[in-house]
Amino acid sequence: MKGRISISKVHVSGEDIVIPGEKDYISIEIEDELSSIRFLSLKMSLLNFANAITGQGYLPVDFKLGGLKNVGKKLEVKTLEVHIPKKNPKRAFLSDEDIRQAIKISEVDGWKGRDKDAKNHHNYLPGDNYKINFHRWISVKNKT
């Protein structure tokens, strides 16, 4: 598999200390190229990072792991026009339930709609229609 890595030195100002006793830390993130999922995010002290890149192993880190069920799958994205009528004309905004019900109709074959698109006025189209982004991850065959 192919991916991308990002290594950053983070400076913390104020009281938001991430690693006790450290104002600065190293953040490392790894993203799967095919699925665009950032599946590993870790933080470590500057000293531990320096020791790691000069050969010392098994150093402590804090990490988050996520999205593994879709790593290695291909991310597909599309935009559909979805009709979302206001069921209560006295309300200024669409209800979350109305949005979910309208988008759910187009969620077929693994596609998942992004409900918050209906709350963005830039996505509004005449006639109570909205541009809604949908995404899904599909398995791909290995090229051998």
Tell me the layout of helices and strands.
Layout: E1 3-11, E2 24-32, E3 38-44, H1 46-53, E4 62-65, E5 74-83, H2 96-104, E6 112-113, E7 124-125, E8 129-138
Report on the architecture of this protein.
The chain is mainly β and 144 residues long. It folds into 2 domains: 3-70, no CATH class; 74-138. It has 2 helices and 8 strands; from the N terminus they run E-E-E-H-E-E-H-E-E-E. The strands form 2 sheets. A 4-stranded antiparallel beta sheet has the order 1-2-3-4. The model has no long low-confidence stretch (mean pLDDT 92).
Features:
single chain, 12% helix, 144 residues, mainly beta, four-stranded antiparallel beta sheet, elongated, 2 domains, 2 helices
Short synopsis of the structure:
The chain is mainly beta and 144 residues long.
* Binned strand content: 35-45%
Helix content: 10-25%
Structural classification = mainly beta
Distance between the termini: 13 Å
User: What spatial order of strands do you see in the largest sheet?
Assistant: 1-2-3-4
Rg measurement, Å: 22 Å
In total, the number of strands is 8
| Tally of individual helices | 2
